[in-house]
Amino acid sequence: MHTPADSFETTGITLTREDILTLDMTSPECLEGYRDIRLAVATPAIRLGDVSHNEQQILAHITEATEAGADLLLFSDMPLTGKSCGDLIFQKTMQDACLESLARITRATAGSFILVLLSLPLRLEDRLFKATAILHNGEIVGMTPASYLSRDERRWFSDPFEHDLGHHDRFSCELITDAGEENNPFTELRLPPIECPTILRHVIDRPLPAPEDRSDGGEVLEFSLCDMSAQNLLSFTFSFVNLCTVIPCLAVRPSLLPRDMPPCQSLRLFNFDAAHATDALSHGSIPVAAIADGRLEWTGEYRRLKRELIRRSLRDHSIILYAGGGLGESASQGVFAGHRLIISDGRVLAEGESFHPGLTIADIAAGELLSVRSNAGNRWDIQKEPQVSGLHGSDPDKLPFLMRSELTPQNFYQETLTIQAKGLADRLALLGAKPILGLSGGLDSSVALLVSLEALRLLDRPPNELIAVFMPGPGTSKASGELAQILAESTGVDYRVIPIDAAVKAQLANIGHDGLTQDITFENAQARERTQILMDLANMEQGIVIGTGDLSELALGWCTYNADQMSMYAVNSTLSKTVIREMTRVASDLFLKNHSPLIEDDSRAKAVGQALRVILERPVSPELLPPDEQDRLLQLTEDSIGPYELVDFFLWHLIFHGQAVGDVYELALKAFGDEYSADDIRRWLSVFIGRFFRNQFKRTASPEGVSAFPWRLTPYSAWQMPGDATGELWIRALEAHIASRKETL
Fold it and tell me: What is the DSSP string of 445-490?
């Protein structure tokens, strides 16, 4: 190791004129006397919008991590407000509360060597940013704005690169509070900027430069934000630093240095900056990626994410800290599992338990740090959805929603059911309500029944808190009633039978309908009467109506507006019909083997399994037209809208992956050509396009519900489309493709 002329040596360590601690990477003995570096990630249990409560949770985790000897603590995304607080983030009251809370949290880090990374909303003049505050020893040593924003986040936060944020040295924050009495003068408080790459300052780093006198003679005080009180604070300035997703510097506590190390006021062990990677790596720097995530929990998503993080860490020989949002985030769209991961050089050192808030800690032995280095860049692009099959010569998957290449059927079922149930459980717990379910004896309501039972199990509440109502009407078959009764009685729910014949007859008579003509009015009156009963029952029983409609029905509008289209919380809205069938099939197998935790009694479990198997084998029908004398269903859904395997195939490729309609047609021929004729595929694709466009108005009025998958059609956040759009462009494109295809044959 080269030793500069004006430096001095200790065992294995050289101090240069720049006072940078450099390690001889060929001499592992130089690390003798160092103890492990301890890293921590935390997912606090929050309350949406309750900054005071969330602050206490954050402080508790900081205390716990400090007492455990952690050197660095990463929090999940936006823990002061909650990642999912929506447009409340625009409220100045909340923005101000976050800054005042940040001051108190910063003060709590004084006297310790822990480095805290905490993201929060930060308003600068007329723009709102999502920024990560870097806290250390009672100071805010830097702020870094998030630039890689999701589509949802762009609704609330500005992209710093769009406004040349990086070209400024200082940025003023809006007024936090009034300064007390109007006639009281105030002093502008400034924090001098910290030059990169020394982003994460340490008590043994070089002190901040002394502030210069202002040209106007006014006094400028060097204060940390934590020294400012709401009573006298009007504005403050600080340095924005470019953190992105890579921590450029990981400070080591003085206690980690060898005992014979002479005193020095400015030592750093790791000094990594992506812009100077070559020089940094030559000094033994280690890339550390800190990911505070706010993604929803989807079936199979965490497996993909974990696999990608391990792959990236292994490739870059880097350290990865991952903290996902968890308990307390909104269940309006889905659930947050609160995953926590600490990975080093491709090895998972620690992993938190899903759906359980808390702290996860891991140690990295000093000796292992010698092998952890890379010149990786600072942008992370983690795939959120699986690749579309069949686009480049491979055989298209007939049932793409089932994720058969990624998950076993049982894992697919269990992960999906857990997400659905967790979302419902959170909503029931928030409202102190019980679930109210219309049990029809069909596929969708059977899956919703299992979800409701699992939600009650998670809440440690008995199954008889679920009120399952069978409402026979003019179109109901006897078999459906028998199946609903078996399911209800075997699972131990509060089962009720409320016939709707008389109510429907009166309703039709009131509007001048003869009650005999089996038209759309006759059908929809039954659906709306059932929904009214469930809504009224929910009011009377302090419950919420559980929506059972699935994704395929929502896509085609195969539901009655303000009837089965409406509920108080929908649990199947991201499950296509092929997924519903798969869930039913796997559940049936588990019950028949008595492997489901929902029912302990073997005979009752087998009764449920057999009933589900019968339901699976029956044709899908809304049962709004009477069956024949042998109780056979005459109104078959797939006769009207097409086979569900085709419907879901079109939905996957045309809607969710935006492929050209001609390409979708060709893929369908390739996948189903041995089952359906070309004319049938063309006809059902035309029906799909027509129904999809005509029924956007039903999707626009969709209720809240849990997302078990990223494929959603509700306009709340995922699918936005005007209700008066036309599908003629797609129909013409399909017909033009068919005509062109015939000419080439």
Answer: HHHHHHHHHHHHHHTT--GGGSEEEE---TT--HHHHHHHHHHHHH
What's the sign of the alpha-carbon dihedral 310, 246, 39, 316? positive
Question: What is the count of structural domains for the chain?
Answer: 2
**637 with 530: CB under 8 angstroms?**
no
Once rounded to an integer, what is the mean pLDDT over residues 548-567? 93
Residue linked to tokens 């089932």: 402
Q: 419 with 367, same domain?
A: no
Note down the domain range covering 135. 8-371
- Alpha carbon distance 39, 363 (integer Å): 6
Structural domain contains residue 32? yes
Residues 429 and 573 in one domain: yes
β-partners of residue 478 are: none
10 Å CB burial of residue 601 (0-12, 13-18, 19+) is exposed
82, 94, 97, 98, 137 from 55: Cα distances, Å: 11, 13, 10, 9, 18
Residue 184 in any domain: the answer is: yes
Can you give the C-alpha Rg of the chain in angstroms? 31
> What CATH number is attached to the domain comprising 578?
3.40.50.620
Joined together, the tokens standing for residue 616 give: 């699976």
- Buried/exposed code over 300-334 (b: 16+ C-beta within 10 A; e: otherwise): bbbebbbeebbebbeebbbbbbbbbbbbbbbbbbb
Contacts for 673-680: CB closer than 8 Å, 24+ residues apart? 676/643, 676/646
The tokens of 334 are what? 């889905």
> In the prediction, which pLDDT does 704 show?
87
Is position 395 within any domain? no
Q: How confident is the model at residue 311 (pLDDT cuts 50, 70, 90)?
A: confident
Closest Cα to residue 322, out of 369, 289, 356?
A: 289
Q: Tens digits of per-residue pLDDT, 35-50?
A: 567 889 999 998 888 8
CATH number for position 277: 3.60.110.10
